[in-house]
Amino acid sequence: MAIRKILTYGTPSLRQPSKEVHKISKKIKELVKDLLDTLYSQNGVGLAAPQIGENYRVFVIDTSSGDETLNPIVFINPKIIKKSGAFISNEGCLSFPDIYTDVRRYKNVLIKALDRNGRPFVLEAKDGCLLAKAIQHEFDHLDGILFIDHARNRFEVEQGLAQKHFPPLEPDKMIDESELEAEINESLMKEQK
Ligand code: NI
User: Fold this and answer.
1) CA-CA distances (angstroms) from residue 42 to 17, 33, 36, 63, 70?
2) Which of 136, 163, 164 is nearest to 150 (CA)?
């Protein structure tokens, strides 16, 4: 058990794709424990293995808050098998202390993965709930994708990064999400009616 150092934006390994886990070895079990210890030490919602310098396809999420019982969920070799709907999600990331911005996300996701004992499970997260946001955010980390790549307001992100002395935004990493954006605008219009 150990609280590990969280790598911050600008560390090259955060941009590297992570490898599949082939065996739930002692090393992977330790990694899961370290991820949870580190997540709880920061009061975070999710943490992915590449954020502590281990490029394996593993992340952990706990959406419990306040006095609620802890509810850790471990995802090993996750696959998002269905996604639908679109919404605006305000997010931060433990690798970007004090930076928050609106990003585009799917409202509903269906994910399959292995748990910490290597048993497969399927989980559905709906209606843009915290779990739905966290799954998409953490899943991205495994492919070297960061939340700022989904930002709706590039200018705001650029300013935030500069203020906190982070490296600049990488425009070539920004994801073209015109379809998601169109769906978001459509639902915003409906709300206004
Ligand atoms: Ni993150």
Assistant:
1) 24, 14, 10, 13, 14
2) 136
Q: Cα of 8 to ligand 1 centre, how many Å?
A: 10
| 94 Cα to the center of ligand 1, angstroms | 6
Residue 20 annotated to the active site: no
Taken in order of first residue, the domains within the chain and their CATH numbers are 12-192 (3.90.45.10)
Check: pTM over 0.85? Answer yes or no: yes
| CA 190 to ligand 1 center in whole angstroms | 31
DSSP E strands in the chain: the ranges are: 46-48, 58-61, 73-84, 87-91, 101-105, 108-114, 120-125
Instruction: Give the active site residue among 138, 156, 177, 183.
Output: 138
pLDDT at residue number 169: 95
pLDDT, tens only, 43-80: 999 999 999 999 999 999 999 998 899 999 999 999 99
Low-confidence stretches of the chain (pLDDT beneath 70): 1
Give the whole-angstrom CA distance, residue 82 versus residue 80. Answer: 6
36 three-class SS: helix
The predicted structure's pLDDT at residue 72? 98
Separation of 63 CA from ligand 1 center, angstroms? 14
